[in-house]
């Protein structure tokens, strides 16, 4: 074929402009429907259709339609002849076996004479392509054709390569043939557009790699992080900003470049860039790299590689600053990062085996019963696998056997600590059992380890200075300091360790038995204050259950759905008005008769059951009722029957949206009465008539579980009854809120308020913009005196919202080193907190390495970031605060098979802290977002360990799995509300519906609100602390997306569940006048079959089971080619380019909203743009007075990395309760 083309080229007619290569393919004439789109005044796209006749030619070599013909210079010679020219013959490079020249005014073409790109995949298909142009010596960089030697059919091209100079700042593209290498200087004018793709990918990969390396604030850069940088970078060749289409189109080249940088990396800590989340997402969007046809090996081990040289300086990484104790615990995990202490400062413990390590080390002992009394014993029963250990409380006879009643202990290896535990440490359980004394194999020497009197001063003490209560040379020597709750993985100091009674315990007393019996007794209702007997029923005024007293006139939470017709005792036979309206999303019915030619991807929506972010599976909140009476029958005195009055919530009756969403605390009185059982009651709540509350907002803020009513709802007529028609018993309800003398006694009730304390002095580490400390401060727990944040913009945001806080903008390790060395100020003369000054520490060590979003986290650099937990714990050990809170992503518990969480808890308990861990869902605390977070709480010796807060709002069940499994055992929190909660879920509508409409790229940082608050949540966000806010809305700005992305967003239907699969396959004229392309489906999809009329559904040959073909890539299409290309193996990319639903919730708010990012649905429910900064802030629970700082991407990052303040506030209230409990217990004991 090559000879044929050469002969044909030599014999064609020539002109002064050169030679045109004739076409070899037949011409087909078809009618094509062209859709022209113009924007209306409102920014909408109007698509117009016009039909024109257009000839199409498809080349079997280059796959182009209507290919252009190459122009060959006059008098051009073949390559082998040109190379003999005397100008070139004596030119050699440094390597004598390689000839290198320059080539200008060049064009590349195939055997059919069609201009084509070297980057089109044609080389990978083993199809020859050639060059024409003017060859010049290597030293002649002039781009003109002057003094150049015309060449034709140069090649075929074996490969193209890159060379860089000026420290990598300038890039040259070269090609290689069998004879020589050629550096490409300037393309022919008609060929310039074919080089655009190569120029784009070369400069794009340079931008990506350098950003990956420079992004120091994140060890695992996300797709959104890099994309935001890319789309704001300018291609120096075209002076046009890169787009997401460019990135995905050139994904394989970018990945190859990143891989090459990893291969050539010589940094001290080798961090694999190709293992970042960005590369993983890019691979998924573009197609797995392993499925792409690779270029066949032509010349190996030559003088270059097809990669760039980057001027990247050697990265230096801070090592974790640690205390001696923390270093000892984590040394094995983070050896490469931790500074090693001198050998003389390290205490090496010669650990001997214990009886738990090898049962053979122990010989069965025969002791008299008197010798076992009050002793710690190790028991090995025939039926047990492991020996058990316990303290003998008392002895007794059972038939002919001498039995011992023992309080059980558990070895650390069988707790959540696993193999990270101290082999000599035991943990007291709230369990006891009876054993036969003949199974005693050893008397153990167990000591109780009391906290040191100077415990708060032991920060950074050397290990040899920390007392050891155990002789580690004895196989039966152990100690204990904590009581362990197996269900929760909770470590607490025993209330009274001295109650381990032994000796002459004649009364057979056991603390655990007493607690167990009291618990059983509390679960049986106990009636008080007999009122009257009616027939066989005994009526009482109050009863007690689970240590909670209930009386007539109390308001209660009931299980959802309990008010059924068969339980109603009045209005018998009268059918109520049926009202079926909730805040849930309803399944969107698929439109009928969808034209698959226009909407070729819509069929994929049939494959999805539910939409992410939908409230379809969200449970209802508790029902609310008033207790009217309670009675038992003579023969069933423990089965308390209760008569209640139903109270309606606003969302349970047919109100307009504005009224329904106005107030979540609003109830409606009713005359309906129901008979329920005592175990249907979940808890107490507090309801008042509106006239008895002077300031509703202040009353709600003062305590939990508070509601009010003003009117009655008539369920028979479906109407609201005005206040004047309310029953006389309704008006005085909770009159004690506004006390008067004539209060009805049955209406009195003590309404608890949030406890108040003097705020603790707080230190926020890895503070970000301050979400966690903001919530804790809102609860009244702390006053944040100091904060540490390395990122300048986040630190500035923290300062804006906390002007009185000392904010250290520096590496936390460097600051801790100063504090540990005794320094009182840093280089900026900021005062460093000293020991004894910090009461509470909170913070979330950067979680990128642990995050479930980050799938590649095993690199050394990621490991370094993970070791910032070591730095955080060293702060704890040094300052020894009364309390601390550590927040991290849910995946923290499963990182490295649970080793990290185990080591963390081991380190905390080794310091002497009581601690507990659990997963909380932010959506349960009143934010329209799913965000599960690990929360570790710890309390110093002498303090009370807090419990986790109960959910205040119901949330989607699919996102509410809060149990964790570590080492084959499940752990949960203490929370009782498993199936429901006091308040309904919060929706996107609740959070955003009052915000003014803005356009794509809106950048006005201060605008008027334009609307009053429409919902309960908006009242709270706009008027925090019940104070009127400014009328100016800040940070309601959004990212400016490219013209193509904007066109796609405008074509996404404004309907629930819509996403990229609803995009039409049409041509659209963009704002710059350019037209998009239609997506061409060329292949049979073996997974999904053919569409109506036998239409293909595959956009790449991989759909039919073959390897991906780079020539199948398509760009500038409304339906992004990459999505149908990889949809079959990525859950159909459900949610990408997706709209949020007004009645739904947001996915986890991330640091950069992108339509094709992992967060999925980031388009506004009814506006053609991505979510704004203020909308993201509201989805996290930040009120509108909270400020952010820096460029828009930094503001998004500050929000996405934050802990939702409402969740922090709930945690703060629980810590305050623990503090109050301690002080109350102390006062009671003292009295």
Quick rundown:
With 1231 residues, the chain is an alpha+beta fold. Among the domains are: 61-291, Arc Repressor Mutant, subunit A (Orthogonal Bundle), CATH 1.10.10.2230; 354-521, SH3 type barrels; 526-580 and 618-747, Roll (SH3 type barrels); 760-986, Rossmann fold, CATH 3.40.50. The protein contains 26 helices and 42 strands.
Estimated structural class: alpha+beta
Mean pLDDT: 82
Mind describing the biggest β-sheet?
7 strands, mixed
End-to-end Cα distance, whole Å, is 106 Å
Radius of gyration: 37 Å
Question: Strand order across the biggest sheet?
Answer: 5-8-7-6-11-10-9
Tell me the number of strands.
42
Can you count the helices?
26
Keywords: DNA-binding, Methyltransferase, Nucleus, Repeat, S-adenosyl-L-methionine, Transferase
GO molecular function, one term: DNA binding
Active site: 847
Pfam family, one: DNMT1-RFD
